[in-house]
Amino acid sequence: MAGSTMLRSVTRFLSSPAKNNVRNKGISWPSRSRKTTVGGKAAFLIALPPLSYLGYNAYRRAHCLTVVHALDEAEEVVEKADYLYSCGETEKLHQLLVQYKNSDDAEFLWRLARASRDLSLMSHIKPEEKKKLAYEALEYATKALEKNEACFAAHKWYAVCLSDVGDYEGIKVKIGNSYIIKDHLERAIELNPKDATSIHILGYWCFAFAELPWYQRKVAAMIFASPPTATYEEALAFFLKAEEVDPNFYSKNLLMLGKTYMMLKDQEKAILWLRKAKDYPAHTDEDKQVHKEAADLLKKLKG
Length: 303
What we know:
Layout: H1 3-15, E1 35-38, E2 41-44, H2 53-86, H3 90-97, H4 106-120, H5 127-147, H6 152-169, H7 171-176, H8 178-191, H9 196-210, H10 214-223, H11 232-245, H12 251-263, H13 267-279, H14 285-302
Helix pairs in contact: 2-3, 3-4, 4-5, 4-6, 5-6, 6-8, 8-9, 9-11, 11-12, 12-13, 12-14, 13-14
GO cellular component, one term: spindle microtubule
Pfam families: RMD1-3
GO molecular function: microtubule binding
């Protein structure tokens, strides 16, 4: 592939829109370094041996073709993965990405963490398999962070997966991890302020601590000298910011806006957002659950 064609291909990919907040996912291509990993394959940029001028040019052409081929393969897998994610094809997505579980590429690993988590949430997955997938998701997210600390999506999904594992390790561990989770969410937003899902999840963190039951507050006080606290107003600010960044990007954000306004006793706005959540097209099992919860809450409000 000629250099200009390659550039157009990458530019077109990075600028192409996608549904369900797939865009701006932190795609990073290899930089010039001594070791470049592309799709789990290593291309070592070593010092060149003495070559004739013609031999040197032949070496460069062969080397560039190898790297471009690896880039093409990585690009193709990422494009296919993001397409499957946008279509809600969770099982097919997981089957595709699990082939790259030993990759050194953070772009594959965080997507695999997300796919494993999404698969664990599907209604037909048995409890023991859900637990297994939750721990695998955390493992992949951890590896993604190790490979690229500057990848905002790796921070985001590490935070989410760490929270999920807490469900299996008890409330003390879950609360104990809360500051770690918040730190990674804030780092994700720092790296990419336009990622609506990171902002939403931080809002969810605030909402969870705002409604923390008294006995869990006691547990938090035992763990921390200054236990984590938050308010519904703080949660609302994050949910609204997420909607401002990417309107109508996620059914759960619409639901949480409705629930937060309910907690703030603003029934008119609660009904507005709950209706939006109920009318959101159901692409995934989570969307269907959101639809049901929103419908139930609307009945309660109109009661």
